[in-house]
Input
Amino acid sequence: MEIKYRNYNNVLYVMLIGELDEHTAKYTSKTLDDLFLSTISKQIIIDLSEMKFMDSTGIGVLIGRYKKMKDRGISIFISNPSYHAEKIFKLTGLYDIMPKIS
Amino acid sequence: MKEINKMEIKFKAKSENESFARASVAGFCLQLNPTIDEITDIKTAVSEAVTNSVVHAYPNGNGEIIITVTLYSSSLKIEIRDFGVGIKDLEKARQPFYTTRPDDERSGMGFTVMESFMDSLDVENMGSGGVKVTLTKNIQENKEKIKKLG
Output
């Protein structure tokens, strides 16, 4: 898993590149937490256009980040999910807490 | 239903092997000429079952997983077997959002994903110990996939 980010107009953009599963979950959670906790942005956009694979472990990772950021008043949005990631998001109701933006 | 091919892989229950497991199964299933969506469904379901075994089956951290894939003319069967501690309450385990490790940021959606991405799911505690997950999927026939471009 490779993670790229940039700050633009007070929004933190994060791009996840690779496969998000049990093996990469810990690293991904830790890296995102470090990034998110050091940001002054109140909005975070997670770009999934380069995510090659994700299973329900990925949902755990995303919900975990949501819970941590919620208390700090920071919103997280999902952008460019694959057809398949979207299938898992809809099944689990992830969009209820992390809306999709285009 | 006539069996046309079969394979088996055995590997250590380590998260490093998840990517290998789902890619191997997907590669073998390509013989049935599935769509990209069907292949991704299969990879995801295999990943869920293997994750369960890696995370829950072996508290001491040492064990093996065996995957058997059987191909039929327009369907396939995948069995994911571990030899670990088993699942205490199968009915609960299959419920959406149920997890024995809520503090671990686990979604509890593994079986739900398997069930909705495949055509059937069966989970058994084996008498000899461990769990066997059986997944099947119908693969639509070739001719329906031919589309004219332009």
